[in-house]
C-alpha cells in the first residue's frame, strides 16, 4: 500500500515579505510525493504564522489531530524549520510521532528524519537548536532595528490613516487609483519617512474638528467620513490569508475613537509605551488634541450632548453582545436621531460571512436585559445563593458535578474535531460548535472567594443601587455581572454570567419555568 502523507507548509510574516512562497513549498512537496508514489491525504497550511508557538497555527493542530487519529503515515515538509523554531515544541512533536509510528520527511534533509536511532535523534535536536537560534537572532535584530528606527524618529509598520510612505510613482495601496490625487505622480518622500497623505490627512483633521465641537459622537463622525468617501487603509490587504479579509473598509465608531486618541498625529512615534519625537509632520495641533480629550472626558462625566440637551448615545450593553451565528461582537450603530441599534460587526464588514445583517433596537434589548438582571438579583435570593456557592468554596459534590460535566464537554469537543478532520463537518460548523462548547467550559469555572465577596456587596440593596446609577455606572455594573450575551435572530439566544453570579441566574430561570 502506498504511504499516506500529510504535507505541511508555513511562512512567517517576515519570510512572506522576503518572498518565501507558500505556492513554491506546496508544488515542491506535491511533486516529491508523486515521485515517491505516495498518496497525499491533505496539504495543511499556516500562512503568516510564526514557528515559535503552535497556539495560533490551526493547520498544524489539524495535521497533528490527523496523525493521532491514524489517518496519515507520514508528515512531509520542505524543511523541519517549517514545523518549529522552538526546541521544546520540536522535541515534544518528535516524541509523539515516535509513539504514533508516524514518519517525518524533509526535502532539505533529502528524505526521512531519523528518529529511531540515537544518532538520528541527536542530529534532529541539533537542527532544532539551529532553527531556534536563527529565529531568536532574527527577532533580536528586528527588535533592535525597530528600536533604532523609533529613536531616529521613523515610524515602524504600516502607516496609520492620514499618512503614507510618499512613494506615489510606485504606490500599490488599494486606496490609490481614483482615490489619491497624487497617485502615480512624483514621489513625496524617499519611502522611508511618513508624509501627510494628500487626501486622508484632511480626513484626520475633519474628524478632530467635528469632535471638538462637542456635537458629534464617534459613530456620527464615522458616518460623516464614510459619506465623504474616506476609507481605512487596512494593513492586512497584502496578506494572502482568506480568513483575514483586508483592504479599504468603511469607518466604524471604534476606528474613530482610536483615531482621536492617537498621538501619532502630533508628530510622535511610540516604542514600547515611550513617546518619541518623530520625523513625520504633525496633522493636528497639541491644542486641538487636548481639547478633544477634554470633550470626551466631559461627555463621559455629564452623559449629555450639547445638541438640545438630549441624552448622549450611551450603549449599555457595549462589549457584552455577541452574534449567536458567527461569534463576532455586536457593535453599536445609530440611525438618524431617533433610534440606536446593535448589529453584527462581521456581517457589516464582511458581506456574506454572516446572515445576521439586521440590527436590533438598542433600547428594547437594553430594557429586556435590565429586567432580567433586576429579577435575577432580587432581595430574597442572597441567602440561598450563599448556601449554593459555599459548595464551591468547600469542595464536595459541587466539584464532582463540575468535573463530570467537564469530561462530557471535552468528549464533545474531541468528537467535533474528529468530524472536522474526517471531512464530515466544515470549518464554519466546527468553529461554531467549538465556540459553543468552550463557552460552556468557561462557565464551569467556580467563583473564588474574592469574586463572591464582591458579588455579595453588589447585590446588597441592588435595586436601590441600580436606580441611583448613571448610564455609565450601569454599564460598568453589567460588566461586573455578565460575561457575554449571545444574540440570534434579533432575540437573546444565551446569557453567560460571571462565575460568582451563575447560581443567581440559574435560580431565576427555575422560578420562571415554575411560574409557567
How do the helices and strands line up, and which of them pair or pack?
Elements: E1 4-10, H1 13-17, H2 22-36, E2 39-46, H3 58-68, E3 74-77, H4 87-100, E4 103-106, E5 111-112, H5 118-151, E6 163-164, E7 195-196, H6 200-212, H7 218-227, H8 253-261, E8 268-271, E9 274-277, H9 286-302, E10 321-323, E11 330-335, E12 339-344, H10 345-349, E13 360-361, H11 362-376, H12 382-394, H13 397-421, H14 427-443, H15 449-459, H16 462-468, H17 471-481, E14 482-488, E15 491-497, H18 502-515
Parallel strand pairs: 1-2, 1-3, 3-4, 10-14
Antiparallel strand pairs: 4-5, 6-7, 8-9, 11-12, 12-13, 14-15
Helix pairs in contact: 6-7, 6-9, 7-8, 13-14
Protein architecture, described:
This protein is α/β, with parallel strands linked by helices and 516 residues long. It has 3 domains: 143 residues, Rossmann fold, CATH 3.40.50.1390; 140 residues, Putative Large Serine Recombinase, Chain B, Domain 2 (Hect, E3 ligase catalytic domain fold, Alpha-Beta Complex); 204 residues, no CATH class. 48% of the residues lie in helices and 13% in strands.
Radius of gyration: 28 Å
Proportion of residues in extended strands? 5-15%
Major beta-sheet overview: 5 strands, mixed
- Contiguous uncertain segments of 5+ residues: 236-245, 303-311
N-C termini distance: 63 Å
Q: Quick one: how many beta strands?
A: 15
Which strand order do you get reading across the main beta sheet? 2-1-3-4-5
Helix content: 40-55%
The number of helices is 18
Number of domains: 3
Q: Which class do the helix and strand fractions yield?
A: alpha/beta
Q: Report the average pLDDT across residues.
A: 77
Estimate the global geometry from the Cα principal axes: globular
Amino acid at each position: 500500500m502506498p504511504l499516506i502523507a500529510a504535507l505541511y507548509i508555513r511562512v512567517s510574516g517576515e519570510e512572506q515579505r522576503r518572498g518565501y512562497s507558500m505556492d513554491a513549498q506546496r508544488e515542491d512537496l506535491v511533486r516529491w510525493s508523486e515521485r515517491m508514489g505516495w498518496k497525499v491525504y491533505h496539504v495543511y497550511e499556516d500562512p503568516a504564522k510564526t514557528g515559535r508557538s503552535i497556539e495560533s497555527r490551526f493547520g498544524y493542530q489539524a495535521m497533528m489531530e490527523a496523525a493521532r487519529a491514524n489517518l496519515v503515515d507520514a508528515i512531509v515538509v520542505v524543511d523541519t524549520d517549517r514545523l518549529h523554531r522552538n526546541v521544546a515544541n520540536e522535541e515534544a512533536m518528535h516524541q509523539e510521532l515516535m509513539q504514533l509510528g508516524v514518519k517525518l520527511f524533509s526535502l532539505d534533509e533529502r528524505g526521512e528524519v531519523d528518529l529511531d536511532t540515537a544518532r538520528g535523534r541527536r542530529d534532529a535536536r541539533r537542527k532544532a537548536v539551529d532553527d531556534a537560534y536563527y529565529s531568536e537572532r532574527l527577532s533580536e535584530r528586528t527588535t533592535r532595528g525597530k528600536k533604532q528606527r523609533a529613536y531616529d524618529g521613523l515610524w515602524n509598520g504600516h502607516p496609520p490613516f492620514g499618512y503614507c510612505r510618499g512613494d506615489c510613482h510606485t504606490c500599490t495601496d488599494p486606496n490609490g487609483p481614483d482615490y489619491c490625487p497624487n497617485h502615480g505622480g512624483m514621489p513625496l518622500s524617499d519611502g522611508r519617512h511618513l508624509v501627510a497623505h494628500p487626501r486622508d490627512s484632511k480626513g484626520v483633521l475633519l474628524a478632530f474638528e467635528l469632535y471638538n465641537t462637542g456635537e458629534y459622537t464617534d459613530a456620527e463622525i464615522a458616518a460623516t467620513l464614510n459619506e465623504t468617501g474616506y476609507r481605512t487603509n487596512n494593513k492586512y490587504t497584502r496578506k494572502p490569508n482568506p480568513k483575514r479579509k483586508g483592504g479599504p473598509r468603511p469607518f466604524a465608531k471604534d476606528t474613530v475613537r482610536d483615531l482621536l486618541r492617537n498621538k501619532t498625529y502630533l508628530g510622535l512615534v511610540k516604542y514600547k509605551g515611550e513617546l518619541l519625537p518623530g520625523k513625520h509632520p504633525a496633522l493636528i495641533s497639541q491644542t486641538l488634541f487636548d481639547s478633544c480629550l477634554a470633550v470626551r472626558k466631559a461627555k463621559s462625566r455629564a452623559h449629555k450632548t450639547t445638541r438640545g440637551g438630549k441624552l448622549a448615545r450611551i450603549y449599555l450593553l457595549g462589549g457584552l453582545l455577541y452574534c449567536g451565528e458567527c461569534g463576532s461582537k455586536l457593535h453599536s450603530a445609530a440611525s438618524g436621531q431617533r433610534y440606536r441599534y446593535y448589529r453584527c460587526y462581521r456581517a457589516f464588514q464582511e458581506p456574506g460571512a454572516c446572515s445576521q445583517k439586521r440590527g436590533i433596537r438598542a433600547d428594547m434589548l437594553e430594557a429586556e436585559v435590565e429586567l432580567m438582571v433586576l429579577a435575577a438579583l432580587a432581595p430574597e435570593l442572597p441567602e440561598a445563593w450563599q448556601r449554593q456557592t459555599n459548595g464551591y468554596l468547600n469542595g464536595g459534590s459541587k466539584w464532582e458535578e463540575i468535573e463530570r460535566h467537564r469530561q462530557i464537554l471535552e468528549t464533545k469537543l474531541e468528537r467535533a474535531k474528529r468530524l472536522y478532520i474526517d471531512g464530515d463537518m466544515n470549518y464554519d460548523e466546527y468553529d461554531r460548535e467549538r465556540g459553543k462548547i468552550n463557552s460552556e467550559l468557561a462557565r464551569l469555572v467556580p467563583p473564588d472567594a474574592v469574586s463572591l465577596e464582591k458579588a455579595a456587596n453588589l447585590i446588597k440593596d441592588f435595586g436601590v443601587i441600580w436606580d441611583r446609577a448613571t448610564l455609565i455606572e450601569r454599564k460598568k455594573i453589567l460588566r461586573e455581572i455578565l460575561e457575554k450575551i449571545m444574540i440570534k435572530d434579533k432575540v437573546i439566544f444565551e446569557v453567560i454570567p460571571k462565575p460568582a453570579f451563575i447560581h443567581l441566574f440559574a435560580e431565576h430561570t427555575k422560578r420562571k419555568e415554575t411560574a409557567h
